[in-house]
Amino acid sequence: MPVQTSFLDRLIEFFSSFPEMVGKLLLSILGDSNERYVRSLGFVRSNKPDSVPKITPGTILAKINDVEPEMLALSDDELRQMATKLRARLAQGETLDSLLPVAFAACRESARRSKNMRHFDVQMLGGIVLHRGNIAEMVTGEGKTLVATLPAVLNAIEGKGVHVITVNDYLARRDCEWMLPIYRGVGLSAGFIQSDMDPVQRREAYECDITYGTNSEFGFDYLRDNMKPARWGDSSYDAYGQQCQKGLHFAIIDEVDNILIDEARTPLIISGQAFSDLRKYTKANEVAVRLADLQRNATKDSAEAGFLNGPFFEVKEKEHTCHLTDDGIRKAEELAGVESFYTAGNMEWPHLIDNSLKAHHLYKKDKQYAVMNHPESGEMSIVIIDEFTGRLMVGRQWSDGLHQAVEAKHYREGVKIKEETQTLATITLQNFFKLYKKVCGMTGTAMTEADEFWKIYKLEVFAIPTNRPLIRINHADTVFRSEKEKWKAVVEEVVEVHQTGRPILIGTTDVDKSIKLSELLKRKGIKHELLNALPEHAARESEIVSQAGRIGALTIATNMAGRGTDIILGGNPEAMGWAVLKTKYASRLEVPEDEWKIIITDIETKEKTKEEGRKVKDLGGLHIVGTERHDSRRIDNQLRGRAGRQGDPGSSRFYLSLQDDLMRIFMGEWVANVLTRLGMEEGQAIESPMVSRQIQKAQKKVEERHFESRKHLLEYDEVMDTQRRRVYGYRQEILNDTNCKIRILEMIAHQIKMAIDRFLDRKYGADSFAQYASDKLGVEFKGSDFDRSTFEEAELYAKNKAHSVTLTQLQDFIEENLGSDDESEWNWQALTNQVNKRWELENAEKTLKSVGKSDLVEYLAQQTEDSVEKISLQEGSILLQSKWGLASLLNWMKLKFQIDVPESSLTNQPSPEVEKILVGKAKELYRQKEITFPVAAGMAKFMNEGPASQAVPGSQKYNREGLYRWAQSRFHQFANDLSEESFRTLSRAEIQQLLVLVSSKAMPEIGQADIDHKLGEAFHGTQVSEEGDAKDLCDYMRTQLQIEIPTEKLTGVSQDAARQIMWNVFDDHYRPEMRIMERGLVLAQLDSTWKNHLYVMDHLRSTVGLRGYAQEDPKTVYKREGMKEFEAMWEGVEERVSEIVFRMEDADEVQDTVWVIGSAVHEAAPKLQAPEAQSGGAPEEIKQDKKVETIRNFGERIGRNDPCSCGSGKKFKNCCMRTNAV
Fold this sequence. Notes:
- By secondary structure, the protein is α/β, with parallel strands linked by helices.
- 53% of the residues lie in helices and 9% in strands.
- Mean pLDDT is 82; it is low at 1-5, 302-307, 1152-1197 and 1218-1222.
């Protein structure tokens, strides 16, 4: 029975709720912002039951309704012309907003004719909100699928593609085929993406005006496209090597809260194998188990203030974290058999053990995951359970080794620990959807997350009124002291309501509790359906939920199970129809429409579902029983929303106890104190608005914590997002025919400029000598110490400084090794080794001991002085000569580009002139490469001399006839210079020499530099070319280079665009092989370095947390170091490309891509089976025939206090252990 609150508690409740009461009063007078927004669109309805909505004249909703009679008057053919007419109006300067009334009215009319469904006015409101790039909150059953057609039709008019995001493949196909007649009715096309589609089928779907698919499919297509070697339509590659996705323009996201909130942190990952020692996970698991046993024995009071607290580790449930204590680290080192976790090679141990502790104490079987046979491989596996929907997430894995830790927890049950992997391409869903120019979404529960939607995505949330007033009754929460009392009350209410015949839906938070409740109901003899993540139940999810509205139906389900399936009072005849036909058809969508209508009509007649639905309404509709509050309020709202669909009656009540996770962790003590003051006895319950408000505050705290964790991830991922956009953007420019020769020449020029700035810097010689003297004398020098000095002056200064610091260094060595008051701790051996090594002496340990500590400085001083004097710096004299910088520059040119430049040609030249000369030399060499490369490619194709194992695919040993035919075709303008007799009789070297000569003739004297000069003249004084400019340029190309370019192609373009067009046409005519090679070289280097960079960033991300021990913010360090690595990556690409391009025939990178023209194949594209989204990073295990044995060091372990193996005589902890750690 309910307990009455005392006067004091009511007084406290009044003052605590006073601000809320004032807010409600103001809202009742002024109305909230959402209500005002809906009114501004033209929809007005009072809060009274059975009130009739009014449409305000002149508003956008009124305009849509005003156009409806015009649409009614159109014929079917005229209606199908609407998309064409609207596109013409858009091209004439009208905006989408101005076209909205007509487009929406046309879509409404098409839906009425093709599907007998006319959009309600409230659905029009939802469509307007979506078109404006916001989120429409629409309760269950309000027809969100139909609403999405409105903004889809309007935005498809632009022709840039509209993506409709669904939660699974089935809904993508169902919704597309269901709504397709509506789109066709206005002259638009629609397609859908499925996980098993190949690139050609995917491209066909993307070519449609509107494309349906899941977030994973769109995301993985984006990643795969940025690994493909060619854009779509590039005939030099097959369809599997071409991109398939259009640009990311407009996305309509169904169940937007699930995708942009719950799944926000989910990275989509394409990965490859990265070999690692899996035994470390089982070892870490054993250490974690042993630590738990030791902690359990050390203290009986392990649960305190909401977390597990002990001498070895702490488990904090609120923060969902677990960490070793200082004592725990020492004990873990002992258990792991490791001297120290903070030496090189051992620093991952704390992370591994923390993960193992999380696996045991925070990740529970049948709550966060299930142990079961994998549906595809059949192996015993860990399958994650979605914390919001309760569904199995097959194929997903936790990141950072957490998944492997959970697998190690159950390895004795036959669970195999999967290999870790290396990321090849990745993006989080959060950042993927931020790539779209406009995003909108719809869901039944978004208001509670409105702040996050705005802060992260700049999306506003608007609640759309229901078509019929909502009459569901939401009872106050009922709170008990213990779970036992709560479950008893739940069963009693279920029994009582079930006797009336009302259908009941019971929501639970996890698998374990759903099974527990099922057992309790079985004892009462109550028939019911059970739905949770276990395979035997999940397979019937849609069937179970769809019939949950029948008389006497009792369904137990996790809170969001069956989301997307309507619960219709009286039963869902479509679900019954599919149950009959599923043995005949593979999919519901394959059933012929006529057959479907017949069977649905027959079922409705036999089962009398409509009549039964009326009876259920008379009984009070569907009753919802919540058995526990979820962390997120919207999940509770989603459960409540299953009742009261489309104006149906219904009710809901939540049963709670102080032992529930939410209550126990966040507010158990407060509520327990209140209930104690109220004198609550066992078995009694409390129904108090005050308690309900406190529960909502606790939920809000959890939501804020989840938001902070997602925001935390976003701050980390922003670094990768910035880098990803730059790399993928650069890559796409190359695929879109950006001329790579321009890029490569710019790289070469930049490399030369940096080399000139470095080598011809006045301080270069002094800096070089400072480094040389530092290495020889063991003293640190600066370049400024030797600036403008002669060698004699520099040597004198260096030796004087070396003498001056000798005494200090000697004293430091003595203090370090003989500084202890206890003579037994003096380390004479280490001192002797240090002194001998530093000054190249030959003292014996016994000799130094005999001298004694007090006289040691005096004894060694003269030896060290003599040693310094003996060191000669003569070899470094060249570094101070005036020509040293220039000589170094010329040597660099020879090593990097194989270019010999006479020193005399650059002597006394200013840096700009040197740069001009060297860049000119590089361009000359590049032109020579353009002449010889086609010949090298042809010779490799038809007269390959290498062993068969090294031959490229398609090459032939000695095919002289084939080489002759190729040469005749390639150099057709000089075919008379090539006789078949020469190719039969000449040696290979002579043929190659002949072809180089012909290739030199074929390459025109006028080159691309001359084209640039002509472009400068044509664009003088203008930004965009006119028709006359274009004609002049086309005449120039025709007369000077015998190349035809259509005038319209160069009309109305910028100088850079014209340059790209003219250079590309020149390449196609005179240097096609080089163009392919340049493109392949840049792509190969960019892809290779990007993959390596991802590996570096993965490592940085996993270790940056240790910087916190140095009082540094890990996020700041990650951003700084990550961008530093990224800039180094770009420099590496530029340096490598500019070097390889001059020796491409010998470079492995080009051998593997396209230097052998006609035979080369770009790096194979990833297989097209769509990978599953990764819940935090690690992909599915990649099978391989044979595991490569990891190389390990089996050397003897050195203790911290043992003598160091380097021979210094110091203890290991004071020598190499410290150095390695640094």
